[in-house]
Amino acid sequence: MDILGTLYNEVIGFLGISKALELLQAGDYSIFSTYDGVVALIYPIIPLLLILEFILGLVYKKPDTKVYKVNFLIYVFNRFIGRFIAIAMVTLIIGWLQPYALFQTKMTWYWFIYGYIVWEFGHFLYHYWGHKVRLFWCLHSTHHAPEQMNLSVTHAHFFLEAPYADAIRTTVCILLGVEPVMLFAIMFIDGTYGAFIHVGENMMKDGRMGFLNRLILTPSHHRVHHAKNPLYMDTNFCNLLNIWDKVFGTFQNEERDIKIEYGITREMDSGNFWDVYFGEFVALFKDVARAPGIKNKLLYIVMPPGWSHTGEHQTAKLVRGEFLKQHSVKVNKPVSP
After folding, report:
1. Where does the Fatty acid hydroxylase domain start and stop, copy by copy (predicted)?
2. Residue 73: Cβ-neighbour burial (10 angstroms; 0-12, 13-18, 19+)
3. Per-residue pLDDT reduced to its tens digit, 264-313
């Protein structure tokens, strides 16, 4: 009976309806007009869209079952080993660093806009380093391994990536004066939208979202980020406001004549949980073991993926640069990051 109860709680938790059920059972429906009530109503949207997306995949005979299977295993695995680490990390950093904040914001609309821009900067830093530092890429690559895009990719993360990401984002926000209550509100909005931008073509064929493609980061932009095409590699690191990608020259629109190829450049079995989850760590370990001297071994850990002690580098920057030399495509002129 305990097993059935645990399973029930996990399903309810995954669907994000536990809080809404509590409020409904209390019988006070006016609470749905409060912040907690709105949050309770929004939480189930992404899980329900994921289920609908999977059903549409079956209808269109494009279910991406391999992607769903591996991402489900990752979700279950992470639930057992890393469910509270990120929350503890955020709480610790707030308590430790808030006394050193340059100033303190308040919960007003203009400070909220400031806070969101600061949050996006912290997100850009974590995400950029996740692609440019080999050790951090080992944490992040699990999220890029799926060879199709759908909402289940939201759950494809190495369990230590969330603490690493939140440590950077929270540190930036707290030191730049973002008030903790505001920070949690931003985290909720950004997390919900960050899940939505993984929506697949079964649900949203064209992810450009019309005129919004010019104003915010859309599913189309994030599909570009998940692509391994040379033009698209290491671009679009932001989450909602793509301001920092445009500032640092990492912004890239989806080109209609360049079909997106999802996944990572390393040869791998995207249907194998162990290869998806630990494959980049194994590859790094092999490179470090083969490298001559302590300096080269350390460089493999901190240099970008594709760096080689032989000088035969195949980093994303070099691959993309070579592509741009040979092809005429629209791309922002970079500003030094």
Report:
1. 113-250
2. middle
3. 999 999 889 999 999 999 999 999 999 999 999 999 999 999 999 999 99
> DSSP letter string over 53-96?
HHHHHHHTT---HHHHHHHHHHHHHHHHHSTTHHHHHHHHHHHH
Of 21-25, 53-57, 147-151, 313-317, the range with the lowest mean pLDDT is 21-25
Lowest model confidence (mean pLDDT) among 25-29, 234-238, 285-289 = 25-29
Query: Hey, what's the torsion of the CAs at 265, 82, 75, 163, to 10 degrees?
Result: -50
Residue 218 exposed, middle or buried by CB count within 10 Å (0-12, 13-18, 19+): buried
Task: Give the 3-state secondary structure of residue 171.
Answer: helix
**Separation CA 298–CA 259 (nearest Å):** 37
Asked if the model's pLDDT at residue 169 lies above 90, the reply is: yes
Q: Where are the domains of the chain?
A: 44-274
Are the C-beta atoms of 80 and 144 separated by less than 8 Å? no
Tell me the two tokens of residue 122. 């912290």
Quote the CA–CA distance of 19 and 212 in Å, as a whole number: 31
Q: What is the pTM of this model?
A: 0.86
Q: Going by C-beta distance under 8 Å and a sequence separation of 6 or more, which residues neighbour residue 31?
A: 23, 37
**Which pLDDT band holds residue 50 (cuts at 50, 70, 90)?**
confident
Closest CA to 200 of 90, 51, 29: 51
Query: 45-59 vs 2-15: helix axis angle to the nearest 10?
Result: 90
Report how far Cα 93 is from the mean position of its chain's Cα atoms. Answer: 21
CB 219 within 8 A of CB 196: yes
Residue from 206, 258, 268 nearest 235 by CA: 258
Return d(Cα 328, Cα 331) in angstroms, integer.
9
pLDDT in tens, 34-45: 666 666 667 677
Q: Are 74 and 155 in contact (CB under 8 A)?
A: yes
